[in-house]
Amino acid sequence: MGLEKDTPQCAKCSLKGREKACLVEAGGLGPVFCPTLTRTKAIQSARDGYQEEKTSEFFRQSVIQEGSGYADRDQNPYGVKTRIQEIMEFASRMNYRRLGLAFCSGLHREAGAFADLLEKQGFEVVSVVCKIGCIPKEDLGIQDEEKVAIGTFETICNPLAQAEVLKEEETQMNIMLGLCVGHDSLFIQGSHAPVTVLAVKDRVTGHNPLAPLYTVDSYYRRLKRS
Prior knowledge:
By secondary structure, the protein is of the alpha/beta class.
């Protein structure tokens, strides 16, 4: 149906750094599709939402965590912290002690290493693999030719069961590690607790899905073809 001229397209903004309305205290610029300039109602609604009791402290601590992610800020150049460090620090800021880990069976080794690190920092870790339940794919209408390995027994990935078990275990925050596209969405939908992501699945790039974007004009230029 096409996009209206004022439909937000921030990814296509060509303004530089501190010219942008989203970064300048007053008088910033923006293209016709700039939501900072055109979506004032939504922005005010969000501001009000951050003041709600169920959200305010979580959001405040997330903003503080953003700043602390840049270590030694009084030095130039300053250092930065890893995603693993930030997850542990944020959980501590929120006084979360019982964490859920929903992971892909293909990243079992990484899940074990991460769980060990969390436990060494004093957290309780409830970990649930994606294949929980051993439900045959046929039970959900998957045809043999739609399996990963045709002609074999395969079980479904089960993100809703992962979420349900973590709910039963009363985890305070859930961490996703390598769930498939779509399965991750269902896990977030079903999770009773806030969800953060340690890593997403990308079998080709060693789970670094941004890698093709850095070579989209060379090795991965085929991605531009319609």
